[in-house]
Structure formats: structure tokens, C-alpha cells
Design goal:
Helix content: over 70%
Number of helices: 15
Order of helices and strands: HHHHHHHHHHHHHHH
Number of strands: 0
Radius of gyration: 20 Å
Shape: globular
Strand content: under 5%
């Protein structure tokens, strides 16, 4: 196979992996803007149980990222990807047929078992050359950000026009398509002149050699980002309803704010990364996220302040969602990528799981304001940690 065919084959695999990863994001976030409202139509539902349904997906994604990442180091990425897609398919079909909140919780549990993120990120790292790896991970972040935006916009639209069941049936069809693509066209082993990554015999030595305070900061950051995301999508739709914006129009607010965020970040990110240190950028966008929550707290009956709050949040989220994994890929070695990316993905999904589960419970017992107080408190804790790190390293 000549070099051009090898390059095209790699690009093809990378794009398919992007799309599979994006499908996971789409399934996770498509229901988020409306589930705490429309989910109440399920039998036996309340906001606490809806929070469990949202959180259980992230919980089992978190629990299985590392084991499946390690398993992929031993038996190959392809087999693990097919296994995860099959579990994801079963969960989606169950969700499409759910009538009660208990059935829906079980379906989200099945979806959560298909913890595919660490395997895909390891696969991407494995088939890309060192000089191109950061760019590939960066574009994965952009792709995922686009998928997140699409899910937030299309989810409420599809639910309002076609209903709960058809949304999950549509996802099931996409999953079947990707299973066939991976099964028929992905290589069983990597014959692309790329050295296969083999897990070290001593897993603890591998962890020790790859983890340091820098990676801990990034793991904690992705945890906080997704915890806050879940909390925000408990309060965003309810606040919009309180201000007289009907549920079927919420996607328009999300579409406009996300579009502006993407345009700003795409055109600014390369300039920012050249001009400022990574830790300064991390601190700055966490600070912007904190400002967005403070504006939300004091928005009261002002649609302008609410829009400004949502806009600032999405600018910060879009940047951090692509910036954190890109930065992580630069500071870890090539050994045991499945394990390290598994820890990263675990941190991400633990944030989603705790945010969804606790958020529904807090809303059920204490109302919207308490959710905001918790978000703001976590933001300040996050900022203090980053600032302490800056002082420790004499830079900001």
C-alpha cells in the first residue's frame, strides 16, 4: 500500500472515530435541555429520579472507562469499540420503548456500559504520528464541541416534533450503521506502520510514570466542567420558562449562543495559545465561567442578563472542552494511552454523573438558587486551585 493510500486509510478511520465519539456526546446531551421538564411525563417520575437517569449514564461511563481502556490495550481497539457500540445499541432500544422512569433509568445504565471514549482516544493517539497528534486531538475537541452544540439544538427540536421514542430509534439506526462500518472496514490489528501500544505488566508503574500534578489539574478541570454543565442544564430551561420563553423555542437561544461561541473560539484559539501560557488561558476561561454564573444569579427577570450569562458560559465551555484534552495529549507519554485517557474520561463522566444525580436531588429538595450557590462555590474552589498552581510554578 503506497503512502497516499495509507494516509487516506488513516484519515478515513479518524473521521469514523470522530463520528462514533460524537454519537456518544449526542446521545448524552440531546435530552439534557428538556429532560427535567419532559421527563416528568414518564410514569413514577420526579426530578430526583430524572437526575438519577441522567447521572447513571455518566456513572457507568466513568466506572468502565479504565477497565475497557486496559482491555483495548490487550485485545485491540476494534473489538472493544464493537462491544461498546452493541451495549449502546441495546440501551438506546430500551430507552425508545420506556414508559416509566424505572425503565428509562435501566436503559441509561445499559448505554453507560458502552464506555467507549478512552478506547477511541487511545486509538487516535495510536494511528497518528507524534507531530500530528495534538492537531488530531484538537480537531476531536472541535468535532465534539460541534456535536454537543448540535445535540443541544436538535434534541429539544426533535423531542417537541417527533417525541421521545423516535429520537432513540434514530440513534439506534446510526449505531447499527457504525457497527457495520467498524466490523467490515476497520483493521483487526493496526498494519499502518505504527507501533502498537502494549500495557506494561505493572499497571501501577505505568500510572506513576504518566501522572503528575499537571495531569491531576486537567482531570479535576474536566470533572468540574461537566459537573457544572449538568447543573446548568437543570436551571437553564426552568429559568427560560419562568421568563416566558416556551420550551419549543429554547433551541433558538442555544443555537445563537453556541454559534457565537464557536465563531469566537475557532478564530481566536490559535492566537490565544501563541500569545498566552496554557495555565493563564485555563485560569481566564474558568474565571469567565464563574462570571457567567454570577450574572445568572443576579439576572432575576432580565432576559438580557440571562442571555449574557448563557453566552459567557458557552464561550468558556467550548474553549475548555477542546483545550483540556489537547493539553493533556501534549504532556503524557506514548505508553498506556488507553489507561491514561481512561482516567481522563472517567473524570469527565464522574463530573456528569455526580452533577446529574446530585442536581436532581438538590432541585427536588432546595430549588434553583441552591444549585447556583453550589456551582459558584465549585467555580471559586477551581479558581483557587489553579491560582495556587500558578503561584507554585511562578507564572500565571
Amino acid at each position: 500500500m503506497n503512502k497516499n493510500k495509507v494516509a487516506i486509510h488513516k484519515l478515513y478511520i479518524i473521521v469514523i472515530l470522530y463520528m462514533i465519539f460524537a454519537l456518544r456526546i449526542f446521545s448524552m446531551f440531546m435530552i439534557l435541555p428538556v429532560i427535567f421538564i419532559t421527563g416528568l411525563n414518564l410514569e413514577h417520575a420526579n426530578t430526583f429520579l430524572i437526575g438519577i437517569a441522567v447521572g447513571i449514564y455518566g456513572l457507568f461511563q466513568a466506572l468502565f472507562q479504565i477497565p475497557l481502556g486496559i482491555l483495548s490495550d490487550f485485545i485491540g481497539r476494534k473489538l472493544v469499540i464493537i462491544l461498546c457500540l452493541f451495549l449502546f445499541l441495546l440501551g438506546s432500544l430500551c430507552a425508545a420503548m420506556s414508559n416509566s422512569i424505572e425503565q428509562f433509568i435501566f436503559s441509561r445504565f445499559l448505554q453507560g456500559l458502552g464506555a467507549i471514549s478512552s478506547t477511541i482516544m487511545a486509538y487516535l493517539s495510536e494511528i497518528t504520528e507524534e507531530k500530528n497528534r495534538t492537531q488530531v486531538i484538537f480537531f476531536l475537541g472541535i468535532f465534539l464541541g460541534f456535536s454537543f452544540a448540535l445535540s443541544i439544538i436538535l434534541g429539544p427540536f426533535i423531542l417537541n416534533h417527533y417525541g421521545f421514542r423516535k429520537l432513540f430509534f434514530f440513534i439506534s439506526i446510526l449505531i447499527i450503521f457504525f457497527i457495520l462500518i467498524v466490523l467490515l472496514f476497520f483493521p483487526s490489528t493496526l498494519n499502518l506502520n505504527i507501533k502498537k501500544i502494549i500495557l506494561r505488566k505493572n499497571i501501577f508503574d505505568s500510572i506513576k510514570s504518566n501522572l503528575n500534578f499537571d495531569t491531576y489539574i486537567l482531570f479535576f478541570s474536566i470533572f468540574c466542567l461537566h459537573f457544572i454543565l449538568m447543573f446548568n442544564f437543570i436551571i437553564f430551561p426552568k429559568k427560560l420558562l419562568l421568563l416566558g420563553i416556551v420550551l419549543s423555542d429554547h433551541w433558538k437561544i442555544y443555537f445563537l449562543t453556541i454559534l457565537i461561541s464557536f465563531l469566537l473560539i475557532i478564530f481566536m484559539i490559535h492566537y490565544l495559545e501563541k500569545k498566552f501560557s496554557k495555565i493563564f488561558l485555563l485560569f481566564s476561561f474558568i474565571f469567565l465561567l464563574t462570571i457567567s454564573e454570577l450574572i445568572f444569579l443576579f439576572s432575576y427577570n432580565s432576559i438580557i442578563l440571562l442571555f449574557l450569562s448563557i453566552q459567557f458560559f458557552f464561550i468558556a465551555f467550548v474553549f475548555l472542552e477542546s483545550f483540556i484534552p489537547s493539553t493533556l495529549s501534549k504532556i503524557i507519554s506514548s505508553q498506556s494511552k488507553g489507561l491514561i485517557m481512561g482516567i481522563y474520561s472517567t473524570s469527565q463522566f464522574i463530573g456528569s454523573a455526580i452533577g446529574g444525580g446530585i442536581g436532581g436531588w438538590v432541585l427536588y429538595l432546595y430549588g434553583l438558587n441552591m444549585i447556583l450557590y453550589i456551582i459558584i462555590g465549585l467555580c471559586f474552589l477551581w479558581l483557587i486551585l489553579i491560582f495556587t498552581y500558578c503561584i507554585k510554578n511562578y507564572l500565571i
